[in-house]
Amino acid sequence: MSMGDRVMTGLGKAVRDGVRTAWDKEYERGYNEAANLCVGVLTGASEGLLAKMTSGGELSAQEQILYARLTELKAEMEELLYASCEPPSSGGTSHDRGASTPVIR
């Protein structure tokens, strides 16, 4: 392989790696935003019930069931979001565990 071919091959690899890194960062950013929105919806719904409890109010039987279910759903969603986060260029599926970790607030 000539020097020119080696330079072009190296340059091509560097460009591909740079694009892949940029794509992975954007994918991770979007994934984190979506994960935070999903978890935020459940958190917001349960916070109203929690505020009622902490201010001395009693929850009705239906509200207690709802609060328990929202808490379970939030924990399940966070677990699944952490487990499925992997950038597309890693070659894995969305259900594989990846090195990337969502930032769930």
What is the average per-residue confidence, as pLDDT, rounded to a whole number?
81
Tell me the structural class.
Answer: mainly alpha
SSE pattern = HH
Can you count the beta strands?
0
Helices, by number, come to 2
General shape: rod-shaped
User: How many individual domains?
Assistant: 1
Rg value: 22 Å
Q: State the major sheet.
A: none
How much helicity do the residues have?
over 70%
User: How far apart are the first and last residues' alpha carbons, in Å?
Assistant: 52 Å
Low-pLDDT residue spans: 92-100
Strand content: under 5%
Structure description:
By secondary structure, the protein is an all-alpha fold. It has one domain. 72% of the residues lie in helices and 0% in strands. It has helices at residues 3-54, 61-84. Helix 1 (3-54) runs antiparallel to helix 2 (61-84). The radius of gyration is 22 Å and the shape is rod-shaped. The protein starts with a helix and ends in a 21-residue tail after the last helix.
